[in-house]
């Protein structure tokens, strides 16, 4: 059975899409630790990120780097933090989180519930920044 992330990337479950290509998909985390928290996944279902091939790992990180640049342009932050935890969903994924302090990446502090209009506004801003990046 497909993971929830595969179903999101396939368009079966709605999401706040940021960017996609033939091998990767990026979307807002619906329970973010900070506004602008993005998940980046490979379309190929792999439970553990270190089971990706070297080439897949490099491609995923290259895609995530571009998404992180867009997050940094769209969200007020000092940096965009990156972490791989991957215990909740058995599908490799990277968390990109706009941060001003290290505590902004603290998953133990509780997740946010943002109104739909705010999530859409954030997603649109990051997606627009992504589309306008100078490669």
Please give the CATH class: Alpha Beta
Task: Tell me the number of structural domains.
Answer: 1
Oligomeric status of the shown chains?
single chain
Q: Which range best describes the helical content: under 10%, 10-25%, 25-40%, 40-55%, 55-70% or over 70%?
A: 25-40%
Number of distinct helices? 3
How would you characterize the overall build of this protein?
- It is a single chain.
- By secondary structure, the chain is α+β, with helices and mostly antiparallel strands.
- It has a single domain (4-37, 54-131), classed as 2-Layer Sandwich (HIT family, subunit A), CATH 3.30.428.10.
- It is built from three helices and five strands; from the N terminus they run H-E-E-E-H-E-E-H.
- It has helices spanning 4-9, 54-74, 116-131, and strands at residues 17-20, 24-28, 38-42, 79-83, 94-99.
- A five-stranded antiparallel beta sheet has the order 1-2-3-5-4.
- A hairpin with a 3-residue loop joins strand 1 and strand 2.
- Helix 2 (54-74) crosses helix 3 (116-131).
- The relative contact order is 0.22.
């Amino acid at each position: 059975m497909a993971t929830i992330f595969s179903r999101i990337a396939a368009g079966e479950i709605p999401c706040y899409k940021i960017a996609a290509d033939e091998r990767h998909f990026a979307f807002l985390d619906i329970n973010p630790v900070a506004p602008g928290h993005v998940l980046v996944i490979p379309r190929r279902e792999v439970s553990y990120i270190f089971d990706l091939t070297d080439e897949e790992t490099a491609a995923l990180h290259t895609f995530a780097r571009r998404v992180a640049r867009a997050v940094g342009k769209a969200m007020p932050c000092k940096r965009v933090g990156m972490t791989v935890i991957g215990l909740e969903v058995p599908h490799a994924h990277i968390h990109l989180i706009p941060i001003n302090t290290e505590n902004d990446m603290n998953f133990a502090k509780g997740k946010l519930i943002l109104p739909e209009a705010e999530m859409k506004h954030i997603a649109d801003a990051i997606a627009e920044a992504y589309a306008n990046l100078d490669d």
